[in-house]
Amino acid sequence: MFLDTDLNSLTTVLSNLYELFSIAADRMYNYAKSLPRGKQPKQKIMIDTIRDVMRLAFVLMKSKLKHGKLRAVNYQNSVSKAQINWLAATAFQRALKKRQSVYGIILAYLDKCLSSSQPKSTAEKARMQRIIRTNWTKKSLEMNRAI
Questions:
Q1: pTM of the full predicted structure?
Q2: pLDDT digits (tens, 9 = 90+) for 22-63
Q3: What is the per-residue pLDDT across 75-128, written as a single tens digit (0 to 9) for each?
Q4: Would you name any one GO CC term (predicted)?
Q5: pLDDT at site 78
Q6: 1-18 average pLDDT score
Q7: What would the DSSP string read from start to end of the chain?
Q8: What is the distance between the alpha carbons of residues 87 and 90, in angstroms, rounded to a whole number?
Q9: With contact defined as beta carbons under 8 Å apart, do 105 and 93 qualify?
Q10: Which of 97, 83, 109, 99 shows the shortest CA–CA distance to 18?
Q11: Which one, of 87, 96, 88, 92, lies nearest residue 127 by Cα?
């Protein structure tokens, strides 16, 4: 429902997606950080996981259009693969930048993802940056309230 562009604006759906990717990225970072040095996942495994999350998000969103029960209730989704990849890469990059020296290879991979899925138009780029900024501000406010 919260990814349906028939019920929500495209901006709202993209914002919801970014929030989901941010949660996944923060959890991955915290999980890896909590493990002892010798048991932390290799960067290749983490890159494969990020790539799989991007693919899975796209496939699941599009498969609802073809096969799922939502087809009967006019589920629509006009989010592109590039938008999904850009939002996911941005979320994981923000989470992993906290320890750049440890995650350099992953951050380089995410930079490639960002450049290959860059929004084409100026308006689209502004929308995506606004989504990131809004979610980042919301997250900061929630963290301040918790303190």
A1: 0.82
A2: 999 999 999 999 999 889 999 999 999 999 999 999 888 777
A3: 456 788 999 999 999 999 999 998 888 899 999 999 999 999 999 899 999 999
A4: telomerase catalytic core complex
A5: 76
A6: 75
A7: -TT-TTTS-HHHHHHHHHHHHHHHHHHHHHHHHHS-GGGSPPHHHHHHHHHHHHHHHHHHHHHHHHTSGGGGGT------HHHHHHHHHHHHHHHHGGGTTTSHHHHHHHHHHHHHT--SSHHHHHHHHHHHHHHHHHHHHHHHHH-
A8: 5
A9: no
A10: 83
A11: 87
State the greatest distance between any 2 C-alpha atoms of the chain, in Å, as a whole number: 50
Burial of residue 85 (CB within 10 Å: 0-12, 13-18, 19+) is buried
67: which 2 tokens?
């096969």
Whole-number Å distance between alpha carbons of 109 and 122: 24
144 falls in which pLDDT band (50, 70, 90)? very low
Q: How far is CA 120 from CA 65, 82, 134, in A?
A: 25, 10, 21
Q: What local confidence, expressed as pLDDT, does residue 147 receive? A: 47
